[in-house]
Amino acid sequence: MLDKTTTTFSHVKPADTDWRSDGLRDFFLYRDLGVAAATSGRVIAHLVKANMAPEKGTGWHRHEAEFQIVFMTKGWAKFMYGDQETLVEAGDCVHQRPGIVHYLFDYSPDMEYLEIVGPADFKSIDMPAPCEVPTPTSWK
C-alpha cells in the first residue's frame, strides 16, 4: 500500500496547465498532468505533442528510469528500438524497458502522446548509434 503521507490526490483539467516549450526536446510541447507533484517525484505524467517538423529527431539515447510507457493519443510516431523500426499509432501503448536504446525519428504534425515515467527526474543519456536511421517524412 502507498504511503499516504508522501502522495496526494491530484485532478488536473486541461485549462489548469499550459503547453510549454521548455521540456526535454524543443521540437515538442509538454503539458504537465500534476502527477510528479502528487507523488513527490516518484512518477511524472505529461502530454507531449509535435511543435516542429522532424529534422534530426531525438538522437540515440536511453533513459535512467525504472518505468516508462508511451500511449499515443493522436497521430503517429516512428521509433527505432535498437535496430528495429517501430510505428506507434493512436491507441498504441509502448512499454520502454529500462535502459532500452531508442530514437524517435519521425512523427505526424498532429502527434500527441501520454508519457508516464518513474522517477519524475529521469535522465536521458546520449548513446552511440547501433544502426542507420530512416529519413523522416517532410511536412511540406
Automatic annotation (TrEMBL):
InterPro entries: Cupin_2, RmlC-like_jellyroll, RmlC_Cupin_sf. It holds the Pfam family Cupin_2. Residues 51-104 form the Cupin type-2 domain. This is Cupin domain.
